[in-house]
Fold this sequence. Notes:
Elements: H1 2-13, H2 23-26, H3 30-48, H4 62-82, H5 86-113, H6 123-129, H7 138-147, H8 163-175, H9 180-184, H10 195-221, H11 230-236, H12 251-260, H13 265-274
Helix pairs in contact: 3-4, 4-5, 5-7, 5-8, 5-10, 10-12
Amino acid sequence: MQWKLLINNVYYMLSNFSLQLSDEHKEHHIFEELEEMKNLYEGLSERSSYFLATGTRTIINYESYYFLSIYGTLDSIKTLLEIGRINDAIVLVRKIFDDILTEIYLDVTLKDKYNVFESFYVEEVQQWLDSSFRIPKLKKILKVLETSPKTKDLYPYFGWNTYLEHNRHLLDDSVHSNSYSKVLYNCNTVYLGERKVRMLKNISIILNQLMMIHVSFIFHLNPEYLAASDYMDYMEMGMTPPEGSEEWIANFAQDAFDRYIKLNTQLADYIKNTCCLQIL
C-alpha cells in the first residue's frame, strides 16, 4: 500500500504539479458551512455597529470590527481549502479558536468591571484597544468565564476540559508541524487518498463547536446584536413600533440558533429561558 502511494505521488509530482483535489473535496459541505458562518459574522458586525461599547473610549463599537475580522479569517480558510492548503487552513482555525475566546473574555471583563462612578472606561480593555496590553493565557480566560457572575451559569454547558482541550491540541499540532503528515496536508500536489477529506470533516466539526460557543455567549451577553431591526426602523421613521417588536429576532440570528444551538436541547432551553429575544 505504501509503495502504491509512493508511486502515485511520484507520478503526480511529475505531471506538471497539478492540484490533487478529489471531487469529494471540491464538493465538501465545509464550503457551504463557511459561507453560512461568514453570513453570521457579517450580520453581527453590522448590528453591533449601532451600539456603543460602554467602558471604552472608542466612538465606534470595537466589536463590529472584531466580528468583521473573524469574517475575514473564515473567508481566508475557505480560500485555502479551495486550493488544498489544508494545514494553513487549520492554523487559521486555531486563530479563530483564540479570537472567539478573546472576544468573549473582553466583553465579560467590560461587563464585570465597568462602573461609571469610578471610571468611564475599563483600563484593561482600553489598554488592549491601545495595543499596550496582552490578552491573558487560556487558563485565566477560562477561569474568568467560569467565575464571572455574567457567565458562570452558561459556562458548564461546554466541555472546556474535554473536547475543547483535545481540539486545541490537534490545532496546535498543525501550527507547530508536530508530525510529517501536517507538512503533507499543505502540499496540494501530493496525493493522499481520503485523508484530505477526513481533515475537512475534522475542520467542520471543530468550527461548528466554536460557533456553538460563540453564538451562545452572544445570545447570553449581547442579545441586542441579534435583534431584528424592525423596532429601530419604526423609530427612525417616526412611527410607533409594533408591540413587542423590540424582542423580535433577526433572521440571521434565528438561523444561527437553529444551526449551532438547537440540537443541544439543554443549552437551547437555557438560552431561550434567559434571553430577552423571542427565539423560535
